[in-house]
Specification:
The protein contains eight helices and 14 strands. The chain is an alpha+beta fold. The strands form three sheets. Strands 1, 2, 6, 7, 8, 9, 10 and 11 form an eight-stranded mixed sheet that branches. The protein has a three-stranded mixed sheet with strand order 4-3-5, covered by helices on one side. Strands 12-13-14 form a three-stranded antiparallel sheet.
Length: about 300
């Protein structure tokens, strides 16, 4: 499997730089099996450092919750020049539009796979693959990722969005041998058929190990998990388990540098609205912008 596999650190490095790498053509497809075990932490999520058996952690480029990769898991990375590069799509619908070949591929392993607008793919009513996106408003570059648990579930603990379900591996659901190479071929073939893309089956690069980071000063539970504010380098920064254009988060972070401790909620609400204004912000996993407002107000007063 070595020629069709990549170390988890290389997958993280690819994910982090995907929105900024030169792109030949309208899209690039990466489907590779995983070498090693690692946590891939969401782009905006604080890393607590809580882990078992010394599993390393790396930051990825897409939002959402921490994914745990195991040997033989399958990674999909679809880099796009713009959301509509291959199908009619805008930024908020990246997952809905580009998850469809993945569903067809995973359904060939014994249990129908479905997507219900969350941060994971369901098979047998259980989460079997994580999905996430990254987006840049200025360049319109987009990244859609999937992390398929082949021999072991992709999450080492329950996610808020699971709503009580337990993540499963393809092997568990199929109840029969399920080789990573077979899953890799099925996923690659589905995307190649739909979009006439060639497939890169190994990526290279080195990612920086994550150390424990500052936790939330204040947070509010949302659809995918907490959204909140933490302090880094003496400044307030938005953090949490959600997906968004990176530009919107940067705008909000910049506004927080001048926010008064006693800023009234209505002023903070205006700042949040301005950061996420327009369809290009592509916010996903947050039901109400009031959650950001409430967390920011509480964090400012806790400084």
């Amino acid at each position: 499997m070595s020629e069709h596999a990549s170390p988890a650190a290389s997958i993280a490095a690819h994910s982090r730089r995907a929105l900024d790498m030169p792109l030949e053509g309208t899209a690039q497809l990466v489907v590779t099996a995983v070498l090693g075990t690692a946590h891939l932490v969401g782009a905006f999520e604080p890393w607590s450092g809580e882990t078992e058996d010394g599993i390393p952690a790396f930051r990825r480029g897409t939002g959402g919750a921490t994914v745990t990769l195991h040997p033989g898991d399958v990674y999909l990375g679809l880099s796009l020049r713009e959301p509509s590069a291959l199908v009619a799509c805008d930024a908020p619908r990246l997952l809905n539009r580009y998850v469809r070949p993945l569903l067809r591929a995973l359904s060939t392993f014994g249990t129908k796979a479905s997507y219900f607008g969350r941060d994971w793919v369901s098979a047998g009513k259980r989460p079997v693959a994580a999905v996430a996106f990254g987006y840049d408003e200025v360049s319109r570059r987009s990244l859609v990722e999937a992390f398929v648990g082949v021999d072991a579930p992709f999450a080492d603990r329950p996610w808020h969005s699971f709503a009580g379900a337990d993540a499963a591996s393809l092997v568990e659901l199929h109840r029969a041998p399920c080789e990573p190479e077979d899953v890799l071929r099925a996923v690659a073939a589905a995307y190649e058929k739909d979009y006439a893309l060639g497939c890169v089956k190994a990526v290279h690069g080195v990612a920086e190990l994550l150390s424990p980071e500052a936790s939330y000063l204040a947070s509010v539970e949302e659809a995918m998990g907490p959204v909140g504010v933490r302090r880094l380098d003496g400044r307030l920064h938005v953090a949490g388990i959600f997906m968004s254009s990176r530009d919107a988060v940067r705008r909000l972070d910049a506004s927080l540098t001048t926010l008064r401790r006693d800023a009234p909620p209505e002023l903070v609400a205006g700042v949040v609205d301005a950061a996420f204004a327009g369809s290009e912000a592509a916010l996903f996993g947050v039901r109400s912008l009031h959650s950001f407002r409430d967390a920011i107000v509480a964090a400012a007063r806790a400084r």
